[in-house]
Design brief:
By secondary structure, the chain is an alpha+beta fold. It has two domains: about 100 residues, Peroxidase, domain 1 (Orthogonal Bundle); about 80 residues, no CATH class. About 65% of the residues lie in helices and about 15% in strands. The protein has a four-stranded mixed beta sheet, with helices on both faces. A hairpin with a 2-residue loop joins β3 and β4. α1 crosses α6. The longest helix is centred in the first third of the chain and has 20 residues. The radius of gyration is 21 Å and the shape is elongated.
Amino acid sequence: MTTSGIIASRYARALLLYVQETGEGARVAEQAERLERALSEVPEMVRLLDDPEAAAAPRKMELLWTALGADAMAPSLEKFLRLVMEKGRTAQLRLMLHDYIDAWNRSQHVLHAQLRAVTQPDEAFLERIRELVRKQTGCETVIHLTLDPGLIGGFVFEIEDWTLDASAARQLRRIRRQFIENNRRIV
């Protein structure tokens, strides 16, 4: 883990402990997701937040409030963001938010998974996946679906650091590799 990763995880852990005291964990997690998405979609925001020459802390907070839209920022999150700015750690803010969201979800026994498929899978298939994960981990699973025609058929399921690639594209690549290996031996 890099130094910035260690810093981010420590700040995220501290935020998790703090929101468990204040009872604002779910609200902060939802707002952290929106802020993380804004920081990833608008890289200019990160530059403005990290630039000591750019704007004063009140203007930077205003930028973050704007990213949340009409929703009022949770006091716990506002206090956390002010601390991050005060300590000059805004360059790691996106990673801190990401780590906090992961830590919050784990504390609530919820895992987020990615499912890439060619077509919309039926609900019975999704429920079988959720049940399998529930049996293995004891956690509920939120599945984020992405339609990907490049898979040709099948699906790719990713959860934490585990991937199940059951796509036709993968099978074709495997067959191609086997064919090449077998033909090298003949020649």
